[in-house]
TrEMBL record:
Lineage: Bacteria, Pseudomonadati, Pseudomonadota, Betaproteobacteria, Burkholderiales
UniProt domain EAL: residue ranges: 24-278
Native source organism of the sequence: Pseudoduganella namucuonensis
Protein name, per record: Diguanylate cyclase (GGDEF) domain-containing protein
Full-protein positions shown: 471 to 753 of 753
Amino acid sequence: RAKSQQRAGHFYFSRSMGVEIRERVRMMHALRTAFGQNQLFVVYQPQIDLATRRPVGAEALLRWQTADGKFISPDRFIPIAEYSGLIIDMGEWVMRTACRELVALRAAGHDNFMMSINVSQVQFRHPYFLEMLRRALADTGAPPEFVELEITESMAMEEPDLLIKMLGQIKQTGVSIAIDDFGTGFSSLSYLQRLQIDRLKIDRAFVTEITGSARGSSIAEMVIQLGRNLGLAVIAEGVEDERQAQILHTLGCPLAQGFLFARPMTADALNGWLSNDALEGVA
Ligand code: C2E
Ligand code: MG
Ligand code: MG
Ligand code: MG
């Protein structure tokens, strides 16, 4: 009997696979409930001008704290949100929340401040994306020239023609585009040149590397050069110590983000941080 079942094409999952799938489904339900009950929130991590050590913007990052107080990393729940389609509504909510915070910061006198918002590829490929973006900007009154969308390099690698067309349309709204986690994919120079992008974000792994290895040239250095050659702004992410900040500055990297300067913080904390510490200078 077992034999005939096999021939009929039954799949046999290993026990650990079953556990993994159950866990994912459980988390998907919990995430949906948490989102419905407003248990998700957005934190903001300042971005710093390395020459002046003054804040120039912030990246919006999503947080999920469960009812029993545990934080679940976005690296875990974003893929589940993508898989379940929940990312469409969640991403729209992040977009609107971050745009509203940008408007609030401007009202408090922090003009010239940029807001960077992560966009999932599932969101990006959704037919409603452009409309969603336009509406978020219009409804919140966020000035598009101070809004930046972060897409990952791996995402930029798929379906080049579609991406090029989408970026063109997005750019027409006035927002700018950054390639996140840059250096982890394999975009060619000629391909990058065809993309209407504004910034490259050096992945944290390559920032860590500049103080870790004894090699003369680093990937970080190459990305900074690439940015210069293509006329793109460059920002380093995950800067944790002063030596990294100094090396990056010396290499000509204008901007940075990382625990050295500030951790991601709530909107209230960001307001306070910008009005107090930051204006005295972080260094
Ligand atoms: P990301 O966009 O590359 O964000 C940077 C991550 O590095 C954040 O992790 C941030 O908290 C962390 N980080 C910043 N400075 C440092 C540092 O000095 N040292 C270390 N070790 N880490 C640092 P987080 O908030 O856990 O987010 C992880 C990823 O989840 C993000 O990577 C992004 O890909 C995704 N994500 C977060 N929020 C959203 C969102 O609203 N939408 C989408 N689609 N993805 C999001
Ligand atoms: Mg990002
Ligand atoms: Mg990144
Ligand atoms: Mg990342």
